[in-house]
Amino acid sequence: MTSSSSLAAVRAFVTLATEGPPPTLDALIQALDGLAAAYHSTPVGRQADSDSEPPSHDYAACYDALLVRFPEYGYYAATDPSEPISDSLTGDAIDDLADIVGELSEALWREEALGADDAHWHLRWSFEMHWGHHLRSLGLYLHVKRFRA
After folding, report:
1. Does residue 127 sit in helix, strand or coil?
2. According to the model, what pLDDT value does residue 1 have?
3. pLDDT score of 12 more than 80
4. Quick check: helix, strand or coil at residue 139?
5. Number of domains making up the chain
6. Is residue 50 situated within a structural domain?
């Protein structure tokens, strides 16, 4: 996968999650797997030396739109693997999707406004700090829905 194909995978996921008919469960699982593969093949990149700021992400509007689009997805039991065994936490599949879409949308903005090098940097950094956890948690939730429901 080349750098342009990693950003193409990002673009494809955002489109799949937000436009057209809602994807099937299998298509969403496959798209999440594609994002994970895209992360691993994305060049390290470098943050642009720019004062440009991405447009603000309207999380609430994104969440509400995804909730309507994916009414069959909801809350799930989760744990924090970095903590000792404890009570379950609660995950939210729609929150996972909204956070992933928000971070990926910023990467696409960065590609257009600041170049692919900055987009690669953001994609990798934000995966490691934020959306990668959502991707993995959502992936497990969808796997269970698909194979244990």
Report:
1. helix
2. 43
3. yes
4. helix
5. 1
6. no
pLDDT-based confidence at residue 42 (cuts at 50, 70, 90): very high
Total residue length of the chain: 149
**Is 109 a member of any domain?**
yes
**E strand or H helix that includes residue 13:** helix 3-18
Q: Judge contact between 94 and 70, C-beta under 8 A.
A: yes
Q: Residue 113: give the domain boundaries.
A: 3-45+56-148
Residues 138/96, Cβ–Cβ less than 8 Å: yes
Radius of gyration of the chain (CA): 16
Q: What is the pLDDT of residue 123?
A: 96
Residue 93 located in a structural domain: yes
Span 82-87, average pLDDT: 74
Phi, psi of 90 (to 5 degrees): -115, 130
Task: Give the CATH number for residue 7.
Answer: 1.20.120.1550
Arithmetic mean of pLDDT, 107-118: 96
Q: What is the C-alpha separation between 89 and 29, in angstroms, rounded?
A: 22
Is residue 138 domain-resident?
yes
Assign 120 a pLDDT band (cuts: 50, 70, 90).
very high
